[in-house]
Model the fold of this input.
Amino acid sequence: MKKNWSKLIIAALLIFVVVIVIVIKNQKSKPITKVIIEKKDSLSQTTKPVAEGAICETLPEEIKPEQKSEKVKFEQNVLATVNEYKISKNYFDTKFQSLPDQYKGEFKNDNEGFLDQLVIRELLYQEADKNQYTKDLNNISDTEQKKDKAIEKLITDISQKIQISDAEIKGFYDANQSDMKGATYEQVKSDIRQYLIQQKQGNVISQFIENLKQNAKIVKNEQWIQEQNALKPANPLDLAFRTGKPTVLDVGAATCTPCKMMKPIFEELEKEYQGKANILLLQIAEHPDIAKKYQIQVIPTQIFFDEKGNEKSRHVGFFPKEEIIKKIKELGVK
Done:
């Protein structure tokens, strides 16, 4: 979705890809599914909220699943091992119960996904400990708080080393000049820098986590995972694929303005293509497993699947009805 850079200047907000550092903490925190967007009055230099219709919501970068688990016999109550460190069922339950309600909802039907988060958290802590980020934390008696603090120090250190050159900023400005609506390079330079830093931080931290996973010995309790997957309710997308018809999926949120604009369009399409194609409008908060599987990072996102459930194309942001119809026709629907 294009950004009107004369009105939409992304505020300084680092969303660590390490969801765990935030999610696992006991205290309540802000949702991780939104990027704060503000506009700056270039005359007064005061920051004001963007109008509701200008909000575009961005999701954290997807964390790829860790390496395949070995088939081993697990001790009772052990769900995974991370370089021999054991994650027990009791630990899993305690951490899940400590989550704010908003995150409990996200992982309610995704126990494997929550286990993945605990695995990544432990990997990060082990790396932080190895690099002596725990050195000055002996005054913290609570083990879990100590882990969180060490991970934060590690991630902050990585993030602070990221720099953006003037050439990168100018290149971005030139590439998106049509969206600047007359704003000069100097007027938006600092805001573009902050935006690019946030973007690069996400990429660097994501790759850092991926490297840790590749070099670690991670083994998950496959029997427990199979049991959890069997308990999962069938999601609407899987049910749609079983019909053997092409499927159009829109993933959004009730509070997202572009998402609200998509709702009447999909309601019309659902009536017009009844029996010919599946038209699905899903809320990301209700289907985090779908968002994770298809790496949805910005809402609304539309994905077009063929009759076999294969993704053929996707679009990010508001999508006019006539453009959606063109895509549906490309799937062979008349």
Observations:
- The domain at 1-232 is CATH 1.10.4030.10 (Triger factor/SurA peptide-binding fold).
- Residues 6 and 182 are 7 Å apart (CA to CA).
- Residues 1-56, 60-70 have pLDDT under 50 and may be disordered.
- The longest strand covers residues 247-252.
